[in-house]
Design brief:
Layout (H helix, E strand, L loop, with lengths): L1 E5 L3 H12 L3 E6 L50 H14 L6 E3 L1 E8 L3 H4 L2 E11 L2 E9 L1 E4 L6 E2 L13 E4 L15 E4 L3 H10 L5 H17 L5 H18 L6 E4 L5 E3 L13 H9 L1 H11 L23 E3 L3 H7 L2 E4 L2 E4 L3 E4 L4 E3 L2 E4 L3 E2 L15 E4 L3 E2 L7 E3 L4 E2 L3 H17 L7 H6 L3 E2 L8 E2 L1 H12 L12 H9 L18 H6 L1 H6 L2 H68 L1
Length: 599
Amino acid sequence: MKVAIVGAGLAGLVSIKSCKEEGLEATCFELTPYIGGLWAARRGDAGVSAVYDHLITNFNKEMMSFSDYPMPAHYPTYLPKKMFHDYVMSYCERFDLEKDIKLQHEVTNVQQSEDYSESGCWDVTVTRLFPVGDETVEETMRFDAVMICVGAYAYPHMPEIPGLQRFKGRVLHSQDYTNSSEFDARERVLVVGNSHSGCDIATDLCHRLSKREKVMDQVSNHMIAQISDSLTEEERTAAHFIAHSTKQVLGVEKPPVYMSSRSGVDILKRNYGKPVGLSVSFATDDLRLCFPSLFQRLLRWQVGSGFDFKKYGLNSPITKPGRSPFAINDDFYDYLMKGMVKAVPEVLEVSDNSVTLSGGEELEVDGLIMATGYDIHLPMVCTEVINVDSFKLYKHIWPVNSQRGTLAVIGLFKAAGSSLMIMELQARCAVQVFKGGFKLPSCDVMESTTKAYRPNAGDHVKVQFISYVRDLAKCVGCLPTFGAYWTQPLKWFRVYFGSAFPYIFRLVGPGSCEESWDRLVTARSRIHASPEEIRIAEARRKKRNDNIFVGLILTATAALYITLWGFSLYFTWKSLKFGWSCIRSLFDSLKTLYASFSK
């Protein structure tokens, strides 16, 4: 079975791996010259989204791992952009995925074959972007199935604000933001939007430098580099401290970074005594379903809403966490309280060099950064299958009018959890449908149970993380159930109440592997520990397991010995009792005989 995969980002890579795992022939077409999607793309490439330079993963490394390829032990708990991309490339190398990817190939059209109703096949038109001679090459190929893996972050959404075209300063989308060096320290910058990108960019801009500071930074670094070989570690540290102090003294006063929002936001830190996400489990999901009010109160208590939002100009989040915008940022509250970031109301209008806010205040700014999300756009798919103005995806994967189920959309969602875990399960689920391992319901049933997507979808692409993951795993056949562990209740306790790491979905069913259980039980120790600590812990665990095994053997031997001793004692008592009864009978007989002789 031949499968076409559009896009070689994370969604595309897990789709290739899932196809190869089940024996399908996958061919992946990637628009850019590099693999990894957002994590590999360069800023400034036309029509390509990329993450900013200083981005740090929101979830710990175990939650962000591939289910069958854990991150190296020496990786930190949260990964910077380059390190995560290196991990993704090592995944490609480990499973030999690169040979199935065709770079600089643009998929321009995906439409049903003439015999689609019988075969379920698709005609895919591909343009090779590096020319042969003077012309690019266009080719149409036939595939048994197609997986669209362009994701939800390909097409930036620019809000329609009156007067925006007249603004004389810089206007860019968060997609185009690289780092704080793009702005001078004296520039007044307004970030529109308060979700992940908005909070990250607002805090990153607090570190912007003036031109004088940039020159001083370059000169001091160059001078220290020239003499670094002759300096001790203490002297080198002192030199950097002196250069930094001089830069602060001669620097300029920075205006605050403004951030505009129209709704409340929940901002979590990456660590609340333990890394965020470790409390997510099957048990907490069932608690949310059975006792929603209690769950919301516990969650509101955990995200620490003792913070006075209104005092600092922020709208209060609505009372149910998860329904208001949500972001993870370690520095935002601190910068807000220090005055380095200032929250302002919604922008109503833009003029030449200022903006008018909803409260009537006019704010002078030199630059606008739109952290306003992304539109849903799938231009390569024919409108008969997916009409971008309003379309429905069953389980956020299959178009509801896809009779054969041979077209799958991977990665078109937003979740308060590990996107990589969801994309991997989506891909595995789609492959099971292609193979016939999971059968989709009728088009009418899919239509009636699915919400419609809209171009700027907002809440319509959001999924409840762990509930959605369990639903997908059930479709794949890899969801651990009590029935599979009824003879091992301690293992089931760990699966149900423990953190929902991706390794759980490699314990049973298609694609299961023996190493998954060890990866699952040691995941928490790997989050903080060094490689040496992990090695010692694994040695101790192995020794403890050996001791447990020996203890079980000794216990079983002792139990057998006690049982045999009990039986022997029982039968000995029986024998003594029988012997005594015989002696008494003999004595009674002799007594009777003696009495008869006496007469």
